[in-house]
Amino acid sequence: MAAKTHAATTTQLISASKTCSPSNRNQASQLQLINASKGVADNTGQLVTAVRAMSEKPDDPNAQLKLILATKNALVPGQALVAAAKAASPTVGDQSAQGQLLNCAKSTAESLKKLKEALKKDKKAGRK
Known about the structure:
Strand content: under 5%
Number of strands: 0
Number of helices: 4
Largest sheet: none
Low-confidence stretches: none
Order of helices and strands: HHHH
Structural class: mainly alpha
Shape: elongated
């Protein structure tokens, strides 16, 4: 499930963002990264709750709607976090932390792409 994968990759990116803090030479970019992380963390919690509800009651229309809404709400903050991570990465002094940040940003960007594709498929299926 794309939503579950996205929640996992986003959590990893948030963790990588925190790891970079001590070695980031640009505190403004680090602050932007942390603020983007906070916005995503709120949405990720909603997404995880919606995924759980959907797995418990896959035929429940309310659970399906909550998952769709949580997924839509995760897109913009997720994109902002990926952008902030990519912007902050050149100023991270610890190469290991920088590599982890970039790898997690790449994984999160890929999960966002799959999330968008899942929403498009759902929208097409709903029209039939």
